[in-house]
Write a structure and sequence with these properties.
With 370 residues, this protein is an alpha/beta fold. It is built from eleven helices and 17 strands. The mean pLDDT is 90.
Length: 370
C-alpha cells in the first residue's frame, strides 16, 4: 500500500470487470458487464480488462471474455482461489488493483459480488455504489437517459457540465421510489456492483476472442492469509422462477385484486401457452399475493424478453424501468390513461378477466391450425 494512493486520480487508467466463476464456469453476468464495460472503455478511450480468479486451469475460460469485448483478461490462478472466500479473493484483487490501478471496476451484484465489493472498497479507500441499474460516462448519453427516465426539469438536465468524465452510477433509492445517480470524484477506482440482467449482452465475436491478451500476474496467497476454510460445498435446490432468462414474461399487477387467485391462474395459463413464466409488479409482492422471485422492476429483476405481457399493471416508473427494453410489450388495463400504454407496442383497454381467456383460446386455436 506504500505506493498506492486512491486519491491520485491521474495514476488510474482502464475499465475492469470482475468475472465471477463457479466450478470453473463463467456466470452470465460476466458477459453483460463485459459488454457494458466495452461501451464505457470506448467513451474513455481506454482498454477494457476482465479480472478472472480461480483454481488451476481457469485460464481456459478467459478467451471467451474477449469475444464480448475485453481487450485483456487478467487471470489469477491458485488452488486457494478455486472456491470463493472473502479473504482470499479480496487480498488477490486488492494486490492487482494496487499494482495496475484501474479507474473503474464493475462487479455483478450477485451473492458473491455483494459480499466482495464492500470489502474491496474499504481496503482500497474508495467509493462503491451498490446495486446499480444504469451506468454512464458520456454526458450527452447520460442526459438522454435522464430525459427518458427521470422527472428532472429540462433546465436541470441541460445544466450538467459536458466535461464531467466521472462514472455516473444510477441505482434505486428509498425503496425504489427514487433513482439516485452517484459519482466518486475524489478517489479511484470508481466501483459499482451492477444488478444482473440490466445490461444487454453483446454478440460474441470470435476474432475479438482470438485477439484477447491474457495476463497472468504472480499470485501471492497462502493459507495464512485466509481466515476461513471451505470444507464442503453443499448445493440446495429451490424452485425459483427464471425471469431473466425467459423469452416470454406474463406479469400481473394490482388489477387482479378482485380475484387474486383467479388472476394469477389466468397469468399462469397464458404463460404456459406462450412458453413463458409469470412475473409481477411490486404491489402484488408487497400484498403477499406472489413471492418476491416473480417481481419485475427497480427493486425486483430487470428483464428483456422477446414478449412481455402486463396484466392489470398501471405502469409506475419503477416497474417500467425493469421491463421497458423488452422486444414486444403487450398491456391489458381497464384505464386507457395508464402509463403502461406509453411503452406498450400493443395495448388492450379492457378487463383482464375477460380479455385473457379470449387471448388464451385464440392462441390455442392458432397453434392447432398450424
Amino acid at each position: 500500500m506504500s505506493n498506492f494512493n486512491s486519491a491520485d486520480i491521474a495514476a488510474f487508467k482502464d475499465v475492469w470487470v470482475f468475472c465471477e466463476q463457479r466450478e470453473g464456469k463463467l456466470m452470465p453476468t460476466d458477459f453483460e458487464l463485459i459488454s457494458k464495460g466495452r461501451d464505457l472503455a470506448n467513451e474513455l478511450g481506454v482498454n477494457l480488462c476482465g479480472l478472472l480468479l480461480g483454481g488451476e486451469g481457469i485460464e481456459s475460460a478467459a478467451k471467451e471474455l474477449g469475444g464480448y469485448g475485453a481487450d485483456k483478461v487478467i487471470v489469477c490462478e491458485s488452488p486457494l482461489l478455486a472456491t470463493y472466500t472473502t479473504d482470499g479473493y479480496a487480498k488477490v484483487i486488492c494486490d492487482v488493483i494496487e499494482d495496475l490501478k484501474p479507474e473503474a471496476f464493475l462487479i455483478g451484484a450477485t451473492n458473491i459480488g455483494r459480499d466482495l465489493g464492500p470489502r474491496l472498497a474499504a481496503r482500497l479507500h474508495t467509493g462503491l455504489c451498490a446495486d446499480c441499474t444504469h451506468l454512464d460516462i458520456d454526458v450527452p448519453k447520460y442526459k438522454d437517459f435522464l430525459r427518458e427516465s427521470s422527472t428532472l426539469a429540462p433546465a436541470a438536465i441541460d445544466s450538467i457540465k459536458e466535461d464531467d468524465r466521472n462514472l455516473k452510477m444510477t441505482r434505486p433509492a428509498f425503496g425504489g421510489h427514487l433513482m439516485a445517480t452517484i459519482i466518486c470524484p475524489r478517489f479511484r477506482p470508481a466501483m459499482a456492483t451492477v444488478r444482473p440482467g440490466v445490461m444487454k449482452k453483446a454478440a460474441f465475436d470470435q476474432a475479438k476472442a482470438d485477439a484477447c491478451e491474457i495476463i497472468k500476474p504472480v499470485v501471492s496467497l497462502t493459507e495464512a492469509d485466509m481466515q476461513t476454510e471451505v470444507v464442503e460445498v453443499v448445493k440446495a435446490a429451490k424452485k425459483l422462477v427464471d425471469l431473466i432468462g425467459a423469452d416470454v414474461v406474463v406479469s400481473v399487477g394490482r388489477g387482479i385484486s378482485k380475484d387474486v387467485d383467479g388472476g394469477i391462474k389466468l397469468a399462469e395459463e397464458l404463460a404456459e401457452v406462450l412458453g413463458g413464466v409469470v412475473g409481477s409488479s411490486r404491489a402484488c409482492v408487497d400484498a403477499g399475493w406472489i413471492t418476491a422471485d416473480h417481481q419485475v422492476g427497480q427493486t425486483g429483476k430487470t428483464v428483456h424478453p422477446k414478449v412481455y405481457v402486463a396484466l392489470g399493471i398501471s405502469g409506475a416508473i419503477q416497474h417500467k424501468a425493469g421491463m421497458q427494453d423488452s422486444e414486444c410489450i403487450i398491456a391489458v388495463n381497464k384505464n386507457e390513461n395508464a402509463p403502461i400504454f406509453e411503452v406498450a407496442d400493443y395495448g388492450i383497454v379492457g378487463d383482464l378477466f375477460k380479455v385473457v381467456p379470449e387471448l388464451i383460446e385464440s392462441i390455442k386455436a392458432a397453434k392447432a391450425a398450424q
